[in-house]
Amino acid sequence: MRWRGNFIRTHLERDLPQSGLRAPTETLRLFWTMLCHRQGSLFNAAELARSLGISVPSVTRYADTLVDLMLVRRLQPYFTNVGKRLIKTLKLFVRDSGIVHSLLNLGSLHDLLGHPAAGATWEGLAMENLIGAAPRGTDAYFYRTRSGAEIDLLLLLPGEEPWAVEIKRTRSPGVPKGFRIATADVMATRSFIVYPGTETCPLSHGVVATPLPELMKQLIRWG
Predict the structure, then answer these.
(1) What is the radius of gyration, based on Cα positions, of the chain?
(2) How far apart are CA 181 and CA 188, in angstroms?
């Protein structure tokens, strides 16, 4: 936690200003922290601007800078002609889970598991590792319709092969109806639910429950 605190302070006091982002240090820290609280949520610049008392263009500029410095990932929605109303707003993820924990002052596993952000933190951790393990040329998206069909992470592997991934922090994963519908929408060739367990097991509708390290190995071998 001490090392992470120094890392965050260095970015706020030196790296972000050197990148051209001129803003009060405390405002930048609060913005970064608010992104941690909203980990994986749809990006709402107007809401963040109201909370911080700054303009929408300023919020967009802050976000763009954190993305450029590889501190935040911008996850784009996947568009496909399925005749459905799709969510077209992007998501933002703070890329390093340790930084998320530090900014949220979560110094222990007990603190983390008792915090509302625990599930979103697990989702961000899994997503970053899966994208990192995917072969070169893979594009990453999420997919969501306004009726509730959703894929947390859609990996479009080279050759336009779609792998659909649902990320759940549960020891007993099932197949949500919305995920099943979404995988059919995008014609996913493989579908997974990543969970914090140790066993790989088949579920219904061709979905496989798999631990995070196992799916990472599959992506590495694919490449």
Answers:
(1) 18
(2) 11
Task: Answer whether 77's CB lies under 8 Å from 141's CB.
Answer: yes
pLDDT for residue 82:
63
DSSP state of 11: I
pTM strictly above 0.85: yes
Number of H helices, E strands in the chain: 10, 8
Residue whose token pair is 């066993």? 199
DSSP-assigned letters across all residues of 172-214: S----HHHHHHHHHHT-SEEEEEESSS--EE-GGGEEEEEHHH
Share of the chain above pLDDT 90, in %: 85
- Whole-angstrom distance, CA of residue 54 vs CA of residue 59: 7
pLDDT digits (tens, 9 = 90+) for 154-173: 999 998 899 999 999 998 89
CA 195 to the chain's CA centroid: 15
Q: Is 81 exposed, middle or buried (0-12, 13-18, 19+ CB in 10 A)?
A: exposed
CA 4 vs. chain centroid, Å, equals 20
Coil vs helix vs strand at 47? helix
Q: Please give the C-alpha separations between residue 43 and each of 27, 61, 73, 150, 184, in angstroms, as whole numbers.
A: 18, 13, 12, 16, 26
